[in-house]
Structure prediction request, 160 residues.
Amino acid sequence: MESIGAYLRVERESRNISLDQVSQGTKIRRNILEAIEEDQQNPLPPFVFTRGFLAAYAKYVGLDPNDVIARYEKFLKEREDFGGGKDAERPLRRGRFRILLAIIFTLLILVAGLFFLSWYRSVATRKATTPPRPATSSVPRSQIRLPGSTERDRPSRPSR
Prediction:
């Protein structure tokens, strides 16, 4: 069976459409279109986006988008059966990345919780061990009279 890239190139060239025209008409970068026509999977984005690019390419060239997408899926399936294709490894790498991200996030939450607990305990301990402040009087000293003291025990004020 003819590869999807070769099929699209033949159809495009038979209609005398350049790759630049397809790129401008579909707003798909030229390097992505070249990767599609050369059956290179590495420069292509994830499968969902590639399907959209193929549908836009097919519409622009005048082909049935569903047929082109079905051919692409069949092409990928054949590549996987022969051990090729990077799409077979993508979900595994994404899964590992998500697990790693979840572990890092959990550790950050745990460290933040321990930091907060330590801070809270130190504040609570400081409040419990801090002695109360001595009471201050709002009455002026000159008006305080102690029992058993007389007027002469008081220091005299200098006259003005």
Remarks:
- Residues 89-126 form one domain.
- Residues 83-89 have pLDDT under 50 and may be disordered.
- The first helix runs from residue 4 to 14.
